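Before drawing any conclusions, I needed to go through one protein's amino acid sequence and its backbone structure tokens, quoted below without any editing.
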Amino acid sequence: MSLIIAPSPTPRRGFLGSMIAGAGAFLVTGWSEADAEAVSLAAPPSDAWITKIKGKYKQVFDVTGANNVFGGAYPLNFLNSTKEATKTTDANMTAVNVFRHFAMPMTLNDAVWAKYRLGEIVDVKDPKTNAPAVRNIFHDNIPLYPGMTLEKTMSERGVIVVACNLALTVISSMAASKAEVSPEQAKKEFEAGLLPGVHLAASGVYAVHRAQQAGCTYCFAG
């Protein structure tokens, strides 16, 4: 059975449009062969996270929006409500949280957000300053779960958090000029800046596909 999903709005313009705009900027300033290599997927990350999917109740959450404050809450809602409805245990459930598209920076630490001015890139404002965010405002701001962070969803509830390497590669390349570094350095720092426990998949759509192959039902989390 095929699943048809209506397209959702993205910050400022579509992701493809941003890729084209980024490429245009490279053409204006000069795009070296090294830059081109930095945006390739020649060495996709490991699929080891897939082996962690277990149990009878399994769902993958497809998070795409940069301002989706509920991105970290959906898996917890699933785990808690499934446990209540079926009287099952955490060992019999798996929630996979895939952050792709402009949602990928939600998996990065504050240092990366500050250095690369990610609030400007993905159009996220800090509610404390009403200015473009220079910190990951989603990190410890999971609605309905006071004190819960993205790391705790992984360590305490077993949520598998996956980031899109394609989005990471494109966004880091777009942000490199803001930090006055090369796309290669930006990508390395983005990878190093992933929150502890986050898995990097070749792409978000690939991760969603593999999770469904492993038995997860699909939930579009916006």
